[in-house]
Each structure stands twice: as C-alpha cells, then as structure tokens.
Amino acid sequence: MKNFYDAVIVGGGPAGLSAAIYLARAQYSVLVIEKEKIGGQITITSEVVNYPGVYSTDGKRLTEEMRRQAQSFGADFLLADVRALHLDGYKKLVDTDKGTVECFGIVLATGASPRRAGFAGEEEFRGRGVAYCATCDGEFFSGKDVFVVGGGFAAAEEAVFLTRYAKKVTILVREENFTCAGSIVDQVMSTPDIQVYFNTQIRKVGGNGLLQYAEIYNNKTGETWRYETPEKSNFGIFVFAGYAPATELFKDQLELSKEGYLMTDRNQKTSAAGVYGAGDVCVKQLRQVVTAVSDGAVAATSLEKDLFAMYQKLNIKREKPERRVAPKAVQAQPGKEKNEDDRFITGEMRETLAPVFGRLEKNIVVRVYLDDSRLSREVEGFVSEMEPLSDKVRYEKIKDRDGGYRMPAMAICDDAGHDLGAVFHGVPGGHEFNSFIIALYNAAGPGQPVDTGLEKRIHSLSEALDLKLAVSLSCTMCPELVMAAQKIALENPKIRAEVFDLAHYEDLKEQYQIMSVPCMVVNDRDVYFGKKNISQLLDILEKKGIKE
After folding, report:
1. The two domains 4-112+244-314 and 340-544 share their CATH topology (first three levels equal)
2. Distance between CA atoms of 303 and 268, rounded to whole angstroms?
3. Model pLDDT, residue 364
4. Which of 117, 183, 448, 510 has its CA 20 to 30 A from that of 50?
C-alpha cells in the first residue's frame, strides 16, 4: 500500500465504487478502503431488476463489475478498518489498522447499517429466531412461520424472498401504509403466502432457548395479541426497521442532520473543504443503487475540480496512475474435462489469485481429510483445482483417517506438517472463498498486517481456546469473523479456529440452537452471534482466558 493518494474513498459499496471509477478514469490516484467486503449492503440482494441498462442481475455480480471497472482504470483497494480521520487542512490523514494514508481529497461512502426494532427480547433472541438478513438466514426457517418487521423497501422485498422458505410470512408495519414504491407493494399484496398488518408492532418476544412467542399490539387501537408456536417448535422474526448512518468516524468534524445523516450540497460537498459524501450515509430522499452511483459520480467530478485547482495552486506536477487491463474470464478450451461454468474456480478468479500466490514466502501444506461422502468428493474436486495455482501450497489428501476432525476437513499446516490451527469443513465457496485464500496468505506469509497493539493482544492469549465458527456461504457477514478468528489462530498456537458450512452440519445447528449466522462457539459452551473484527473477537477471548 502506498502512503499517499490524490483521493481516498472510505466505503466500497456502489457509491464508493462509482466515485473510484470516475476519479481513476480522470487519472487521479485513488484508494478505496472497505472494512468488510467490496460491494456493500447490495451484495446480499439476490435480484436487481431496476438498475437502468441491466435487465436482471444480483447485487454481488453488479458490484463486482463495478470493482473490476474501477481497478482497470488504476484504482487500488484495501480491506481495512478506518480508525480515525483528520480532515483539517489541504492534506488529509486516514488512519487504519493497516497503516496511515495521506491524501488531498476524501469521499465518504460509509453507508448505513440495519437498525434494531427495540422490542423486549430482541437482543436476547438474536440468532435464536431474530434475524436481520433474509439471504443469510432465510433457509433456517424452512416450513416455519416468519414475521417481517418494517414497512420500507427492504422489508417488502425480503418478505417476498422469504416466501421461498417460510410456511407463511406476516408483515408488521408500524405506520398506516408501506413507505416504499407501489410496484413492490403490489407484489407483496398479491403474494398468497404473505399477510400484512398495519399500525402494528412487536412489544415482546420470548421462548425456551429458541423463539417461541411474540406479544404484538396495534398502536392505533391498543389491542394486544399473542402469537405462540406449539411446544418444541419455533418461528422467526426478520427485522428491517430502517438504517442507522455510519457517521461515527466524523460526527464531530462534519455537519450532520438531526437524524445523524451526513449533510451535503447538490455537488455532494460536506461542511469541510475537500471532503465529499455519497450514498446511504447522506441526507437523501431515495436510497437505491442508482442514486448511490449517481452520488458517487457527482462527488468524484466535484472533487476532481478541487484536486486540479490544488495542484495548480501548489505548482505540483502529479504522477498519473498506470491504467490496467481488467481481468477477463478465461474461456473453456475444447477437450477440457470441465467447462468453465462447472468449475469451482473460474478463469477470472485464477487471474486474480496469481499476484496473491506470487507473494507467498513459505511452503505450507493443506492436509485434506476425506471419507466416502458426496461432500468429500466436492472438497476433492475443489482441491484438484487449487493444486496448480501455487507451488508454495501443497495439498495432502488423506482418506478414511479423521485425524481428530469431523470429515471432510482441510487443515492448514506448516511445511513439516504441524497443524497451524485453521481448519475448514466443507467447500469454501461463495463468500468464504476469499476467507480461505486469506488464511493461506496469512499462513505462508507475508500475511495481512495488524497494528502493534492488536498483535500484542493476540500473543498475550495464554489459555487454550477452541473456536467453532458456523457459517453460510451466502452470508456477507460471516467472512469478517472467519478471517479474524483464523488470523488469531495462525498467530497464536493456543487458539484453534474451525469453520463449518452449516448447510452440511445439521447436528451443530441443533446442538447449539443456531438460527442465524455467523455463529461462534467457544470451547463447546459459549455461543456468540454476529460479525466481529479482530478487536471485538479479542475482547471476547481475553475474558474467556480469565479462569473463573
């Protein structure tokens, strides 16, 4: 990572990616910093049909094309947690857990995160029936009743999505009507498996381990009723109660609305010179992909003028970034055993992985434990495609000997075969493919850097701790926890991090009453739900290391 850029974009969703495309195409050096996953909230949307010029796609594919486009114009990308912004003066500072970057201009595209509804028991039953992502957790409620809380676009869209799994979907709208476009409302009202109650809220939920009852009331009439499942059964509540803008980084430096959103003018300029806002973090009437990319384009072109004027004023001759060729998918060749569409790893992915594997410093071994199951055959197929990608990573297949693991398992070891504590059960596809690659990168070096304070905390863990991580390959929130846990395990030999694709381990779901991912079980006893970064995970593990 360079330590100076013309512009830094904080946030890698559609708004940030759009800004990166425009700035990089104008031949300014650009760094996009994203703390979780490039693409933002839209990556969990399974169908996008209202983006002009694109008949139908999904959020992940749409934003991946945006990323490739920005990268082809020369934009750089960094997965890091921004800790502080220094916005005074013509030179800005962006402090991250991967180092400090200087720049002349900033685009804030930090987005917004789902709000809690606020009913009694919401936090207690999070992961036990209360959920916030239909794509991640919808399958857990197959054949069950589901309530959706909210009256906006997300609530309406996700309610329709949940009919794929749920026996019945009931939408509880606090207001007298929906607050989204009529087209999606018409779709909701015409779906047979959806029932809607207006002026209705949840007051309290409860149950024995899993969610089993909800107290519901009409805020207009005052009438209260109770929904309850039969004994030993459960149901789900999906909360889509709007979003809270991610403004914590700059709330004391920039002007915000009374609701906490970033104030910008028609050129997306904030109250600080050289600082622009874009996307859901800003005050705006419509929060959609199309308005996010519009914000990003406006912010970038406005910032371009600032940068051009600044270079002239300071009489600085700037270096233009090198334009790159966007990687293209390799087409399947005649005579190949597998078509490109049948592969776990596409040609485009192989090209993207080449520079990563080219930086590996040490030889490592991935010990693959296999049995006769279908899942093992899938793992073996995945491994066969991974083997040719790097001469630093050797795959050792062992059949019918479990080595103490649930099979199938892929255990990362050093060159001598000593287990390093990072294990994956299943095929690391979907959102977990990057997590697996990062684990290899961390094991073989140079690895992702962490700041000195976090490194000391990792090595200070003195008690042996076993972490079981239950994930779904469709979950966008799981990789952050997985990468954090495996980084800690690879740095500290007393920590083990085993990742399970929960679709193949139903017994874990039942044993720990898991109804949402990501889920972490520490020492087969203490259960935690939700995404966590390294610092948040260390907060938990440090307490577990204190003998009670």
Report:
1. no
2. 9
3. 97
4. 117
Q: Which residues of 32-51 are buried (b: 16+ CB within 10 A; e: fewer)?
A: bbbbbbbbbbbbbbeebeeb
DSSP letters spanning 251-270? TTTS-B-TTSPBP--TT-B-
Express each pLDDT in 110-154 by its tens digit.
998 888 999 999 999 999 999 998 888 999 999 999 999 999 988
Q: What share of the chain is helix, strand, coil (3-state, %, to 5)?
A: 30, 25, 45
Residues for the chain: how many in total?
548
Domain 4-112+244-314 bears CATH identifier 3.50.50.60: yes
- Name the CATH code of domain 340-544 (choices 3.40.640.10, 3.40.718.10, 3.40.30.80, 3.20.190.10): 3.40.30.80
Span of 36-45, 118-127, 475-484 with lowest mean pLDDT: 36-45
Burial environment of residue 318 by CB neighbours within 10 A (0 to 12, 13 to 18, 19 or more): middle
Is-contact 422 443, C-beta < 8 A? yes
Classify the phi-psi angles of 18: left when phi > 0, otherwise alpha if psi is within -120 to 50, otherwise beta: alpha
Give the count of beta carbons closer than 10 Å to the beta carbon of residue 527: 17
- Domain 130-239 indexed as CATH 3.60.40.10: no
| 325-383 pLDDT per residue, tens | 544 433 333 344 445 556 788 887 888 788 889 999 999 999 999 999 999 999 999 99
